Prior knowledge:
The complex is a heterodimer of chains A (230) and B (269). Chain A has helices at 48-79, 82-87, 89-108, 122-132, 135-148, 198-201, 205-211, 218-228; strands at 15-22, 25-31, 153-160, 165-172, 184-191. Chain A is of the alpha+beta class and 230 residues long. Chain A has one domain (45-229): 3-Layer(bab) Sandwich (minor pseudopilin epsh fold). In chain A, the strands form two sheets. Chain A has a three-stranded antiparallel beta sheet. In chain A, strand 1 and strand 2 (25-31) form a beta hairpin. Chain B has 269 residues and is mainly α. Chain B has a domain at 61-244: 3-Layer(bab) Sandwich (minor pseudopilin epsh fold), CATH 3.55.40.20. Chain B has helices spanning 18-30, 61-84, 94-102, 111-125, 137-147, 150-162, 207-214, 218-229, 232-245, and strands at residues 10-11, 45-46, 168-175, 180-187, 197-204. In chain B, the strands form two sheets. Chain B has a three-stranded antiparallel beta sheet. In chain B, strands 1-2 form a two-stranded antiparallel ribbon. In chain B, helix 2 packs antiparallel against helix 4 (111-125) and helix 3 (94-102) crosses helix 4 (111-125). Chain B is globular and about 55 Å long. The two termini of chain B are 23 Å apart. Chains A and B meet through helix 1 of A and helix 2 and helix 7 of B. Chain A: Homotetramer.
Amino acid sequence: MAVRSLATRKTLTLGLNSTRLTQSRALQTFSLPDLPYDYGALEPAISGEIMQLHHQKHHQTYITNYNKALEQLHEAIQKGDSSTVVKLQSAIKFNGGGHINHSIFWNNLSPIREGGGEPPKGSLGWAIDTNFGSLETLIQKISAEGAAVQGSGWVWLGLDKELKKLVVETTANQDPLVTKGAHVVPLLGIDVWEHAYYLQYKNARPDYLKNIWKVINWNYASGVYEKESA
Amino acid sequence: MACHLLLTDFTLPLKSPKLSHSRQQRKGRSNGSRKVSTTVAYYGLKTPPYNLDGLEPYMSKRALEVHWGVRHRGFVEDLNRQLRKSDILYGYTMDELVKTTFNNGNPLPEFNNVAEAWNHDFFWESMQPGGGDMPKLGLLGQIEKDFGSFTNFREKFVETALSLFGSGWVWLVLKRQDKRLAVVKTSNSINPIVWEGIPILNLDMWEHAYYLDYKNDKAKYVSMFMNHLVSWNAATDLLETCKLTATRICRAPYLGGFEPDICFIERYR
Lengths: 230, 269
């Protein structure tokens, strides 16, 4: 059960529980990570109502279904039931992807008073200028590609570690960025599923994409960039 | 085969002066005389066969104002904008346009708009005030034949709706080759007519279809649709027409003129 911390800021990690110990290998399942800010802290860019539903309902559902699929997979592997193993792949990709993507997303956002919206400095800022010309150009590109996603999906700023450059990508449904390349690391992801904005922005996804930049946590993206490009 | 003109309210793009001009142009062309100026075709936004508050409390007026009034309207307007620039796509029925722009799985830019316009027209007509309950007579018989029982069908429909990953639609279709009903799900804006399935009912499972009324509670939305909204009258009409004529179903009237060999469905209100 997620507990919001009002007074302190917690580091966000993927919650891991070890459940049953079966033979020599324990199945690790997952739990909902806490948000490092209150539900209402990102207003007016993203409403508290959306943040609460998004975290407590949508993300939790992905985790619940991911854990269920993992348990079924664990059992199928032990029984040598290949057909079930293969059949479960789409549920794992969807729900596991949902967990991965949302865990990154909560880190990508930050209240304005905690640095949300402040442009990236240091090596990421420089890399953005080199790869895209300016931060404004990058923001426009990400917003345009996010608006153009048909159906549900995500828009990403990633680091291609092989080509050593920044890339803007989109993924469908809950496909994580790694589906675009094993060497592509997510720095920033923006959820463009309707549940991420509909209650507040209705059909106007471009407005959501315009406003979200005010609460984007470039510090986190910079941290990942520095670590992955070292 | 009898053909009736479907009487519906159209929201015509009245600000465009080209519309009446294009009718003249069409007549000119069919007589063989040559005209130099461009001829264009437009689709209209059909209003649902009930007031926007007619589906309350199961689908709110507010939801319909946004879903029909903004989103569906947007598809029609964007489509018309695209068609203005296209000479090749002139003169298609909506069915034909969906199939052509689907382009065997490599969709053209117009596909999303025309398919979503089609899908939403069909969706409003798949519902009615005081809907739900069960089909009767012929359709019920067909469902029992193809699914075992109505309960089995309903379970299958609900399960399919809830197991869709991402955005999409759920359909009750008549499979032409197999001559049987089936429940299918499609992603994003895909429509079964591209695979020669004949739609009988659909349900919009994009989040925007239920989020304002049900937030993330998909199961409740689908349940309310089955219990209170689904129009078995509409479904019965379609199935009977399919069986009698065994031809393609045409949905949206063709605004560029009246083509005598296009068949329209008369809808009971």
